[in-house]
């Protein structure tokens, strides 16, 4: 686990210093950004092989923010729209990614409960964005450092490629501080 922890830490540092607005007209900045996202998706694939098999990907990540996507191709249900399990995959993984990269590898995210409210079928790729402000991140760290764990919630709005709100997720997470010893 030390190798993975070091890899997560180094990748988080690399991505946090990249410019999410970088375009191909700025080759070095664009390369830093895209290689960072590729590394994040590779780490996810190594940790959760189910994610890349189902065409999940992180599209943007920066401190306090993550945007992810799941492709319709390969994830259709019996009537041609996005399969319900694909919505859950899309809504669940970014919370762990956000936690790992904002809190660091010393904290392990655990999903305790998640609900999804389906609003309309998605007939395209679906996207979700999550954010945690700096004060919330610091409060989570402080509680986990003091007690060994901390709980928090993430609500996500899932949108199709045309911008239609297709579902809403509510996830309840807990993070555990690795190596915590009660005083």
From TrEMBL:
Pfam families given in the database record: DUF4442 (PF14539)
Matches recorded under InterPro entries: DUF4442, HotDog_dom_sf
Sequence intervals crossing the membrane: none
Gene3D superfamilies, A to Z: Hotdog Thioesterase
Protein name: DUF4442 domain-containing protein
